Amino acid sequence: MIVNNRVCKLLGTEYPLLQGGMAWVANAPLAAAVSNAGGIGIIAAAATPPDILDKEILKAKSLTDRPFGLNIMLMSPTAPDALELAARHRLPIVTTGAGSPGKVLERLKPLGTIVIPVVASVSQARRVEKQGADAVVAEGMEAGGHIGELTTMVLVPQIAEAVKIPVVAAGGIADGRGVAAAFALGAEGVQLGTRFICCTECTVHPNFKQAVLDARDRSTAVTGQRTGHPVRCLSNKLTAEFDKLDARLAPLEEIEALGTGRLRAAVVDGDVDWGSLMSGQSAAMVNDILPARQILERLFGEAREVLRKIQGSCDLEPK
Prior knowledge:
Helices cover 41% and strands 14% of the residues. By secondary structure, the protein is of the alpha/beta class. It has an 8-stranded parallel sheet.
């Protein structure tokens, strides 16, 4: 069953869906819109200064009376501040990435916060389950932004088999077929990021939205392999320059310097040539800009129809 399952009951939502915590993209208006539509909206803490993040949380509270969450990127220098804001505001849900969530679990679990780490391997999933995580987001390398090495297709079923807590699938999901596939793989929920870039309530620059709409099947590139922090973005002059630096084995400091400020350039300024257009491979399946409510209704309506057709047309019994 796609609705009213363990993830819905855990999150208190109509749909078992989390919106991805995309830096510079996942702000209060988007998070509130997704929560109002029946999912869980997420504000991205990223490296946001605490005073600004505090205002975003308060803004989201003014825009929705439904639960929403905060994503804490643990490698960020402002992660401790984000953690304390989550505690002060008694946020009901926190997702984590890029590090061990031990301190987050210790601080927030006694307050009743649901903590859901994003993981990219079976060993990570097992570790955070032992630490007390309420669920995990199993994110495949098809996703945008920082990625791991395994695809969603092989990662999700292995994690679903390895842990007892609910598994939320992420990476490469943009329509009802992807939602249905995630459940077939053993997930009980989905997390979508790229699809919500082209959401009416998303405040990213129109140039960024258009770049997603124009994307094709091979429009993304992965940069930063040598830094140990690979990132998937839409291909442009910036990703080509990263490739040149890798080809001549440029110092890591030079690579990091090239990336400084590029995400803001894309999201705020609309620089589609030299901005970091963090986006997943599912961008090729995003063809329109819709309100969050219509996106969720379409996703799960399509998923139910896909599962109905499969049940009615596939006879896997041996003849």
